[in-house]
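A brief tutorial aside. Many learners find it easier to grasp structure tokens once they have seen a single protein encoded end to end. The record that follows does exactly this for Alpha-ketoacid dehydrogenase subunit beta. Read the sequence first, then the structure, and try to relate runs of similar tokens to stretches of the chain.
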Amino acid sequence: MIHAINDALFEEMERDERVIVIGEDVGASIFGDTRGLLDRFGPDRVRDMPISEAVMSGMAVGAAAAGYRVVCHLMYANFIYTAFDAIANQASRLRLMTNGQIRLPVVFMAAGGGGRSNAGQHSDYPHVPVASLGGVYVATPSCSADAKGLLKTAIRTDDPVFFLQPTSRGGEMGDIPEGDHTVPLVSAHVTRQGDDVTIVAVGAMLRIATRAADALAEEGVSVEIVDPRTSYPLDEDAILASVRKTGRLVVVDEARAAGSVANHISALVCEKAFSALRAPIIPVTTPDLAVAYSPPLEKAMIPGPDDVVAAVQRLIKETGQ
């Protein structure tokens, strides 16, 4: 996935000279996703910033309003909290407040989620706080192809986008279609067809859901998996169509329970497809605690395949297959 993101940045910077990259260690590229950009495009278009997220997010909004297409790399997703003023009070509102007189093509990019023992200040998956603003797309890729395709689309979009790459999947291999591969921002993907239960899996949780579905298949349970690809806006039609087909829903989200997209998806289905449900909706999320540094404790906190299997088995037991 890291290489896919790097390819997307190279291709978009080659395609459009207005694309610039600013952020934390984008020159040194600690993660590898911006590797080589500084050598190829120079310091006028690739700029290391002081470690002040408030400054860099404000600069990103201003540069986007001035006509650049900005990628602002915040490194870890937790750092969006200190960058939030420019995102929440400016980026999400300026197109409306200027009556559309300015565009804001800015991508705030960060790695989020656990799985690498990065401790509480580096392991959040904060897609919901950004989604709640109502004026920022939130892209949550789950594989290499979607990471590249969603990022290329995000850079070309005239509205702000929060691109949340899953930390735990950065080094995984994956196929990417040839050519100018883009993925629409609001286009859920049914990654697995099934009849008995729908699992909506966000970001890194797609891998967890797929492993659970493989285990459940051995028990004769047919699972359908929907990857939303974006937390905001949601592709409601795809989710509702799957629930109407299976009648059961499990939502797997790495965010904490109190602030998860699982809550929003559950409310959506209750409002618009309640009559199709054969059983209660079960969210599988991270507990409402800071993510632990200890690898065993972190593993116990973050949803795993066994948690998803147990949720599905509970639904099947309550309603019959």
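Self-check: Residues 189-319 form a domain with the Rossmann fold fold (CATH 3.40.50.920). If you spotted this yourself, you are ready for the next section.
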